[in-house]
Amino acid sequence: MNLYIERIADILSKRDDPPLCYVHSFGCQQNVSDGEKILGMLCKMGYGVSADEESADVIIYNTCAVRENAEQRVYGLIGGLKHLKEKNPDLIIGLCGCMAQEEKTVEKVRSTYKQIDLIFGTHAIQEMPRLLYEVITKRKFVYDTNEYKASGSEIEAVRSSSFKASVPIMYGCDNFCSYCIVPYVRGREVSREPKAVLEEVRHLAEKGYKEIMLLGQNVNSYGKNLSEPMNFAQLLRRINEIKGDFKVRFMSPHPKDMTKEVIDAVFECDKVCKHIHLPLQSGSDDVLKRMNRRYTSEQYMDIVSYIREKDPGFSVTTDIIVGFPDESEEDFKATLDIMERVRFDNIYSFIYSRRTGTSAADMPDGISDEEKSERMTRLLKLQRSISEEHYKRFVGKTLEVLFDGESKKPGLMTGKSDEFVIVEAPADESVKGQRKKVKIIKSYNWALYGEIL
Ligand code: 5AD
Ligand code: SF4
Fold first, then answer.
1. Confidence band (pLDDT; 50, 70, 90) for 318?
2. How far is the CA of 362 from the centre of ligand 2 (A)?
3. Any idea what DSSP says for residue 50?
4. I need a labelling partner for 155 at 20 to 30 A (CA). Which of 33, 105, 194, 260 fits?
5. Which residue, 48, 38, 36, is CA-closest to 12?
6. Of the bound ligands, which one is closest to the alpha carbon of residue 253?
């Protein structure tokens, strides 16, 4: 065990009541996965888990820097922690994740948010015990934004779910899409050794996990610099051979690296869910070029055609950015056009957010915020009508659904089908965490309704 985990465990063991920690992760699944590792280390030290900030002795905010509103939310929340610190001066407050990797955050926190004791960047997860030990023993502000290699990759996580788990297969990103802060805050791409990935999946399958999400900023470029050569398609096939009653998803692949070999593996591996999330970002070739995405709309369509030739009803979802600098009405219409051609099951859409340090941050932008919001409204309206029409293909079919909780409507449980569509069905709590066959009776523009067989 890590020396500093032991040292803190020793200090905590002398306390009468076990102290509590609260770890909150914002943003993407990679962050959630990091947060589970941070919680894993804190639990090893002897911290119990608090349901909220109020009763915690250590609060860690694991932050996201992808869009400005995520950052503002965090600053709002840490502002609100000031009164907790005044009530309990022994409270330790830490900031980590993508925002914490940026020097500007460290400066802002030091000048304005004195209630923060500890900052560690995305590369320094495994340094957290040492830093926390310093805070506990010296009661001083500490921070570490150094770029350690493959930080935290083999730390054991305390997972929030007993049936869904994510497994990082790579860290960082080499793509430098012009709008994106990730390559700056998560560093260069490093793939995890296949042996470690396969062992973790095997372990989760043995523990009865039903769904495993393979994570990476660009999963289909998996395999650079490995000691045992392996590409993403081969990794999927190797995971498919692992025994157990589980399914696999992955997020996110990049269109520029999407090979037929990967798509073939998705179709041929029975454990891989029949759904691909393939971020498009824009349907305009000019915008794609200025985004540095390195594919054209036609190349994107070629991938979709290859998938749909194999299965015309195959589920595809995407990410779209609205209002990239100087996106013209014509550019925006090209996005609407490709949405109609692909017929996505769902889209995750974002208004462009300027990120200091990225190359798009310096691009002139003559499009007003009102125009951007108005485009977003049009985009969502179109997607609702596409989903409404497209989801009808499931009515009368039987889908496999992993139930994960209660619906807001009484008497119904909700889950996701293998196709990544929300499905609701009359059932009780006992189906939570189970994969069931559901006969689909009705479709809406956001979900399906059916009966468990
Ligand atoms: N502004 C808006 N959306 C962004 N994304 C990434 N960076 C930005 C940004 N600066 C979106 C992309 C990506 C998703 C995870 O977040 O669509 O695929
Ligand atoms: Fe950001 Fe592009 Fe890397 Fe995705 S592929 S993390 S959008 S730079």
1. very high
2. 18
3. P
4. 105
5. 48
6. 2
